[in-house]
C-alpha cells in the first residue's frame, strides 16, 4: 500500500507542475500581445489580430514597403507651367501606385522633398515658410508651388510669340518669283537652316542641292540635325536684298535665318551684338578739312611719298622702311630673344591647380572659308607651317634615331640548338634544333619528339645552357607550339621542301636531332660590380 500511495503522490506532483508551466506560457503570451500592441501604437500600424489560444504565438505584423523617390524626376525651381503640370501628373501616379495616403504625413513630406531640387526646396522653405517639421500634406505644398509658378508669369508676355517674317525669293533677273512666309530670324544661329517645305516652295528637289560643307548641324541643347545639302538663294525683305546660303535639314519646318544673314537683310544692325548708340537730340554738321595724300603717318616715313594708290615699287619701299624701323620684331636671324622690361615673377601657392579662364572657341561657319583662305596665303608666303608638316618631320627624325640603333638578328646555321617561343603563353619553353633554312628568316625546327615546324627568326633563340629537362620536349608541348606544321612524322629522310617559295634542304643525318649533352656555357672573366641605386 505504501508503494501505491507514493505513486499517486508523484502523479499529483507532476500534474501540478504541468499546470504551473501552462499558466506560465499563458502569462508570456499575454505579455507578448501587450508589447506588440504598444509597438503598433508607436509606429502607427494597425494592431495584429489576437492569437487563437494559449501556447500558439501571435502572427507577426507585416512590414511596410519603403517609399523610393529615386524613380521620380526632380522638379526644378525655374519650371514652367506646362512642365509643372506634367510633373504633377507623374507625382499623382507615383502616389497612387505607392499608396502614399497610408503613410504618415512626415514620410509623405520627406518623399516630396526628395523629389525637389535644391532651388525649389529653398522656395518651399523661404517663400512658403514650410519647414521640415511643419505638419502638412504634399498636395497642399504642390498647390502653393503651382500658384507661385503661375504668379511669376507676366500677363503682357503671356501671348507673345517668336516673330515670323515673309520674304520674297528672287530669280536670276532680280525679280520676285515667289514668296515664303515661314521665316524666323535667329540671332543665335551661325548658319541658316531650311526644311523640305522651303525646298518645295522654291521649286527645287534634293538632286538640285550642292554638297554641304558639314553633314550635321548642332542645335542648342538638342540632338544634331542631318544635312542633305545646301543652296544659295537670293531673297528680299522689305527694300533690302541679299544672297544667303540655306542648309536643308528634313527635321525642321520653315527657315531659320542666321545672325549674319539678319545683318545682311538689315534686320539686325551692323554692330550686333553691340547696343545701338544713343543719338543726340540735336545733330550738328561738322566740316573737317580733307586730308591730303601726302600727310605724314609716322616719323620714320617722313622721306617717303605715300599716295592713295601706291605702286608695287612704293609698296616695297614702305615695307622695307617698316621692317627696318621695327627690326626687333621682324628680324628672326638670331632666334627668339629676351623681352625688355622688369623681371617677371610668378608666385604659386602650394595647392595651386592650373586652369584656363577662356578656352578655345570654334570658328563660326560663316567665317571658316575666309579664315582658311587667309591661312593658305600665310602658308604660301612662308609665314606659318601646317602642324602636320612639323609632325611628319618629328616622326622622320624619331624613325631615323630608332633605325640607327637597330640591328638584325644573328643568322642560325643548320644544327643549332634553339629555344622556341610558345605562341600562346609567350614563354620560351620549347627546345629544338634547326634542320632547314628558308626565305625571309624562316627556319625549320625539329623537336625531340619528332615533330617539325617552320618558325621565323624572331621566335627563336640560340640555346646557351640546357638542364636535364630542357632537352626533352614531350608531344604535348610540340603540339601546342606547332601552329601550321606540315604534319610529317619527322623520320630521318633526305628531301627538299619549299620554305616560303624557296628551296630548303633537310638533313637526313641523325646529328640533326637535339644534342643531349651540349658544351658548358662560357663565362667571361670580367669582374662584375653590383649596381648601386641612390635615391635622392
From TrEMBL:
Record region (Disordered): 41-75, 466-536
Record field: compositional bias (Basic and acidic residues): 65-75, 485-496, 503-512
UniProt biased composition (Pro residues): 45-60
Transmembrane annotation, as ranges: none
PANTHER family per the UniProt record, alphabetical: ANK_REP_REGION DOMAIN-CONTAINING PROTEIN-RELATED, CCHC-TYPE DOMAIN-CONTAINING PROTEIN
Protein name per UniProt: Uncharacterized protein
Amino acid at each position: 500500500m505504501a508503494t501505491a500511495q507514493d505513486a499517486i503522490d508523484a502523479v499529483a506532483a507532476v500534474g501540478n507542475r504541468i499546470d504551473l508551466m501552462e499558466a506560465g506560457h499563458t502569462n508570456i503570451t499575454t505579455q507578448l500581445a501587450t508589447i506588440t500592441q504598444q509597438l503598433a501604437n508607436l509606429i502607427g500600424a494597425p494592431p495584429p489580430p489576437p492569437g487563437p489560444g494559449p501556447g500558439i504565438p501571435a502572427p507577426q505584423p507585416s512590414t511596410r514597403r519603403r517609399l523610393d523617390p529615386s524613380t521620380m524626376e526632380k522638379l526644378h525651381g525655374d519650371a514652367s507651367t506646362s512642365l509643372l503640370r506634367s510633373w504633377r501628373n507623374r507625382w499623382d501616379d507615383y502616389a497612387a501606385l505607392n499608396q502614399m495616403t497610408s503613410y504618415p504625413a512626415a514620410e509623405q513630406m520627406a518623399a516630396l522633398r526628395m523629389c525637389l531640387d535644391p532651388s525649389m526646396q529653398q522656395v518651399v522653405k523661404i517663400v512658403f515658410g514650410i519647414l521640415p517639421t511643419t505638419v502638412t500634406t504634399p498636395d497642399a505644398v504642390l498647390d502653393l508651388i503651382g500658384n507661385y509658378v503661375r504668379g511669376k508669369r507676366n500677363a503682357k508676355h503671356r501671348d507673345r510669340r517668336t516673330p515670323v517674317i515673309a520674304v520674297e525669293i528672287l530669280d536670276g533677273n532680280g525679280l520676285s518669283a515667289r514668296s515664303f512666309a515661314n521665316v524666323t530670324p535667329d540671332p543665335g544661329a551661325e548658319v541658316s537652316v531650311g526644311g523640305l517645305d522651303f525646298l518645295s516652295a522654291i521649286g527645287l528637289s534634293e538632286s538640285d542641292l550642292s554638297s554641304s560643307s558639314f553633314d550635321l548641324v548642332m542645335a542648342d541643347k538638342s540632338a544634331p540635325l542631318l544635312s542633305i545639302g545646301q543652296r544659295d538663294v537670293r531673297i528680299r525683305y522689305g527694300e533690302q536684298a541679299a544672297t544667303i546660303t540655306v542648309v536643308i535639314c528634313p527635321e525642321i519646318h520653315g527657315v531659320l535665318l542666321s545672325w549674319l544673314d539678319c545683318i545682311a537683310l538689315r534686320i539686325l544692325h551692323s554692330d550686333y551684338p553691340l547696343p545701338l548708340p544713343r543719338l543726340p537730340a540735336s545733330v550738328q554738321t561738322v566740316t573737317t578739312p580733307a586730308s591730303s595724300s601726302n600727310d605724314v603717318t609716322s616719323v620714320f616715313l617722313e622721306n617717303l611719298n605715300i599716295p592713295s594708290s601706291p605702286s608695287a615699287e612704293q609698296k616695297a619701299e614702305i615695307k622695307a622702311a617698316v621692317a627696318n624701323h621695327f627690326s626687333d620684331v621682324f628680324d628672326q636671324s638670331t632666334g627668339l630673344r629676351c623681352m625688355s622690361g622688369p623681371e617677371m615673377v610668378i608666385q604659386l601657392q602650394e595647392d595651386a591647380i592650373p586652369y584656363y579662364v577662356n578656352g578655345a572657341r570654334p570658328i563660326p561657319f560663316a567665317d571658316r572659308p575666309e579664315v582658311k583662305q587667309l591661312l593658305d596665303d600665310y602658308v604660301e608666303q612662308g609665314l606659318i607651317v601646317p602642324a602636320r608638316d612639323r609632325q611628319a618631320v618629328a616622326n622622320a627624325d624619331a624613325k631615323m634615331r630608332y633605325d640607327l640603333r637597330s640591328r638584325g638578328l644573328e643568322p642560325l646555321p643548320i644544327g643549332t640548338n634553339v629555344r622556341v617561343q610558345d605562341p600562346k603563353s609567350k614563354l620560351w619553353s620549347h627546345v629544338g634544333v634547326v634542320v632547314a633554312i628558308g626565305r625571309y628568316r624562316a627556319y625549320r625546327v625539329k623537336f625531340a619528339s619528332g615533330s617539325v615546324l617552320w618558325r621565323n627568326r624572331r621566335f627563336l633563340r640560340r640555346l646557351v645552357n640546357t638542364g636535364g629537362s630542357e632537352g626533352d620536349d614531350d608531344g604535348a608541348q610540340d603540339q601546342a607550339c606547332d601552329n601550321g606544321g606540315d604534319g610529317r612524322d619527322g623520320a630521318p629522310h633526305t628531301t627538299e621542301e619549299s620554305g616560303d617559295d624557296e628551296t630548303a634542304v633537310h638533313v637526313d643525318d641523325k646529328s640533326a636531332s637535339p644534342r643531349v649533352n651540349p658544351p658548358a656555357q662560357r663565362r667571361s672573366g670580367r669582374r662584375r660590380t653590383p649596381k648601386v641605386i641612390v635615391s635622392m
